[in-house]
Structure formats: structure tokens, C-alpha cells
Design brief:
Blueprint lengths: L3 E7 L5 E3 L7 E6 L3 E4 L4 H12 L3 H11 L3 H22 L10 H4 L10 H16 L1 H53 L9 H21 L7 H24 L1
Antiparallel strand pairs: 1-2, 1-3, 3-4
């Protein structure tokens, strides 16, 4: 996307009007995503600001994810195997020590198996991050994440650590190997975690649900989102294919 520039000229009454090819008293530059910087704003500051904003750039991250998950069979594999990874991770984290003990009043209202340990804060962090990405879909996925934490706590409390770690190990191996199989056989492209760890360990659960919402009810975080993402995916895949072609020649 090319950078766009608008100049605002200020007359004696301090009223602003957009003008082109006129005497410029003050100017601002408007960059992608409608972020405005003074013309004198340093390039270094702009780059830092863009980098910070990109951490929550849903369009950018979902397009990156989509460029690694364009094959229908590989997509289905991830739909079924991504969330068990999150669930079993929370299952194992149940056995970490509690970080704080709630008041007696709160304890009276929650089941004793729910412990405020690393698993709880792990789930809360994920939930808040998903809401920051997109309020509507993020709230749903955040709720599902907290439900996973609660459900995994009940399961872990029931089966104990001696069995839990074996269940977790087996499930993690099956799910990760299944996804790698989907990438190598159907997608014919290495998994995304080789290029972006946050995609695999943080954003994948959210993107799986967002993909389901898009397919089933046509949900978009904002109008035009799907169209923009598809365009980015096509560009990303073309760039990857061009790089692969260069390696062969």
C-alpha cells in the first residue's frame, strides 16, 4: 500500500482546509491504517510506532496464517488439532503452584479444583490478547479459552499428575505431528511456526475460530476484511513460490 499525503493549510482564522499546490504552513502525513504523523516526525519514530501497532494488526497476522493454510484438508486438520494442544497445555499447567490465594468469600463461590496458578494466568493472557485483536470474535475465543482452563482443571484434578503427563505427551505428539503431516502432504509448505513462533503458540487458536466464523456465518471484524486478507494471502503465496523457484534455478 502506498503512502498517502494530505496537506492542511491554516489561514488567519485558524480554520483548516485541505489543499493541493498551495502555500503550506503545517502539514501532516497519513499512513496506512489512517495513522497520522506530522511531516517533521522522524522516520525512526514512525518505524517504531508501526512496529508496535503491527503486534495487533489482525489483517496482517491472519493473512500470514492464511498463506500457510490454504489447502482445505490442511485447514480441517488444524481445526481439529489446534485446540487440543491448548487444552492439554492447560492440563499440565494445572499442577504448577498457585500464584495467589483468593479471599475466603471468593473461595466459597468457586469449585476447589480451580486454582489460580500459571495455567490461569496463561489462559487470561490469551483471552485478553484475543479481545485486543478483535472485540467480538476475541471475546468468544477468550471465553472458550477460559472454559478450556476450567475444564482442564477438572480433568487434571480427576486423573492426577501420574496419568496427566502421559495424556499430555501423547496428545501433543499426535497433534503436532498431525499438523506437520498436513503441511508436508497437503499444503506442501513448512509449518508457520518455523517462521513465526507466535503464530503457532499464541494466535493459532484464535485464527481457527475466526476461520470457522468466516466460513459458516460470513463474519468479518470490519467490512472488507476478508477481501483484504485474501489479497494479502495471494501476494504472500506468490512471493513464497517465487523464492522457491529461485532456489531451484
Amino acid at each position: 500500500m502506498q503512502e498517502r499525503k494530505l496537506w492542511f493549510s491554516f489561514n488567519e482564522s485558524n480554520s483548516a482546509q485541505i489543499s493541493e499546490n498551495q502555500t503550506i504552513f503545517k502539514s501532516f502525513e497519513i499512513y496506512p491504517n489512517n495513522h497520522v504523523f506530522p511531516k517533521s516526525h522522524s522516520c525512526l519514530t514512525r518505524k517504531k510506532t508501526r512496529k508496535k501497532m503491527s503486534l495487533l494488526d489482525l489483517e496482517k497476522h491472519f493473512a500470514f496464517y492464511g498463506s500457510y493454510h490454504s489447502n482445505p484438508i490442511n485447514i480441517i486438520i488444524h481445526v481439529f488439532l489446534v485446540w487440543p494442544i491448548l487444552f492439554t497445555a492447560l492440563l499440565l499447567l494445572y499442577f504448577t503452584p498457585p500464584i495467589f490465594t483468593p479471599s475466603q468469600t471468593l473461595i466459597n463461590f468457586i469449585p476447589s479444583v480451580l486454582v489460580f496458578n500459571f495455567g490461569f494466568f496463561y489462559a487470561v493472557f490469551y483471552a485478553l490478547f484475543y479481545v485486543a485483536l478483535d472485540v467480538k470474535a476475541g471475546s468468544l475465543v477468550g471465553l472458550l479459552t477460559l472454559i478450556c482452563w476450567a475444564a482442564s482443571s477438572f480433568v487434571a484434578s480427576s486423573i492426577g499428575f501420574e496419568l496427566a503427563w502421559k495424556v499430555v505427551l501423547g496428545a501433543q505428539l499426535i497433534c503436532w505431528l498431525g499438523q506437520i503431516f498436513g503441511h508436508l502432504v497437503f499444503e506442501k509448505r513448512a509449518p508457520a511456526f518455523l517462521d513465526n513462533l507466535s503464530q503457532a503458540f499464541l494466535m493459532a487458536p484464535f485464527f481457527v475460530i475466526l476461520e470457522i466464523l468466516q466460513t459458516t456465518i460470513g463474519y468479518e471484524p470490519y467490512p472488507g476484511f476478508e477481501k483484504e486478507v485474501k489479497a494479502r494471502i495471494e501476494v504472500n503465496i506468490k512471493e513464497w513460490k517465487d523464492k522457491q523457484q529461485k532456489k531451484l534455478t
